[in-house]
Amino acid sequence: MGSLFSFLTAAYYLPRLYFAESPAYLHVKVSPDSKDLARLSLQEYIVAKCPSLLKQFRPAWWLYSGHFQTGYCVIGDFSQIDKVEYDRTLLRTLDGGTIGIDMTPPESERTLSDDTPIVVVLHGLTGGSRESYVRAILAPVCTPVEQGGLGYRGIVVNFRGCAGVPMTSPQLYSAGNTDDIRVAIWHIARRYPRARLVGVGFSLGANVLTRYIAEEGMHCRLAAGCVLACPWDTVMNSERLENHWLHRSVYSKAMAQNLQKLIRRHFTALSGFTDHLTSQAVHDALALKSPTLVQFDDTLTRLTGGPSPPFPFPTARDYYTWARSDTVLPDIRIPLLAISSEDDPIVQLIPVDAGGNGWVALAVTKKGGHLGWFEAGRGFGKVNRWISTPVVEWIRAGCENLVPEQREFKALHMHDGFLKEVGRHDIGCKEVAGGGHVVGVEGEDGLLAGL
């Protein structure tokens, strides 16, 4: 009887893997140094290269529910683990906005060859390169090989105004606007033309990354992508978040509170755009008393969360309809692994049909909350982030085993001081002064971490 119970318990905690009925086939090196290739379906590729997804994730007993897992992301002390430091480069976009590009390891720490693989990371709603969930991936990925890591380069793309990046344009960022990650990847590809790029996105950043990969299609400069806790159907997820008292009162309001604090930090700059609707919208957003996320988005994000067109939108719901990423899954043409949790209190709808696209695989754990996945570690009260292992396995396979299909990338060139892609005259970027050194365990005072 005990053996049966153990078997059933183990099966309960096994991640569920979902694939489209018609698989995509990948060319894969038999070993990193081998010239011999195997032709594997995406499912066979994951089974061979991501074995941890075939093993159970059992949450720490004191963090059993999704609420506890998510809460620990906010209140947990991660300052002594996964220490990562960065060199920051600021990019000025064609519309006058600023993006922060944080690269690790810093050049002062060690020098890597130009063909070293690069993991390009997009953070969550109000996060940045300092977030513990970002560092939990970059620490093992960027640690030198002789110390047990992969020895890769990591680059975090910090959205406008996040993680200390200045706000220099009335245009903000949003869950659907991909122009900033697009120009950031142009910058990375031009600086390191021989490097393999793999993208990783968290929460809102996962939504942006999914849309970017889909929009690029066969011309995507990433070899593979991984998205964690992606909100997918932003319309229905918003409705479920707002229509449940606990989720509305705790999570929706906490995210809106973070956004208000972020905007308040940049109040002087944003209110200075007197000839733009951003100025009034910022005043209105900061005047809201304990708003929910949809109330904040209805007041500010729907108006200034991206270029015009498509912004401004009539309502937040119209913005959510445009920003959703589940509808673009059929357009993806690189291997994409999405990992979610059934008990995520913020993301409650998961497109397990993979959009009918053989390039997309979804792994769904029974537990884990929103960006949690904490399991018991060694020592009383210690935890590990289970998610690090499968993500690192996926990254390594994408950089060392996968042989991407031949793709033609449009040429990059400088025009009027801005880096642009041939055929795209509306967006571009250039380096500007103001970067520096960023210590990855120093948080953003006042902001709730992990959201």
UniProtKB/TrEMBL annotation:
UniProt cross-references to Gene3D superfamilies, sorted A to Z: alpha/beta hydrolase (3.40.50.1820)
Highest taxon, organism lineage: Eukaryota
Pfam family, one: Abhydrolase_1
InterPro entries listed in its UniProt record: AB_hydrolase_1, AB_hydrolase_4_sf, AB_hydrolase_fold, ABHD4
UniProt organism field: Obba rivulosa
Domain AB hydrolase-1: 117-349
Residues forming the catalytic site: 203 (charge relay system), 344 (charge relay system), 370 (charge relay system)
Keyword Ribosomal protein part of the UniProt annotation: no
Classification via SUPFAM superfamilies: alpha/beta-Hydrolases
Molecular-function GO terms, alphabetical: acetylesterase activity; monoacylglycerol lipase activity
BP-aspect Gene Ontology terms: medium-chain fatty acid biosynthetic process; medium-chain fatty acid catabolic process
The name this protein goes by in its record: AB-hydrolase YheT
UniProt keyword annotations, A-Z: Hydrolase
UniProt keyword Hydrolase, yes or no: yes
Family: Belongs to the AB hydrolase superfamily. AB hydrolase 4 family.
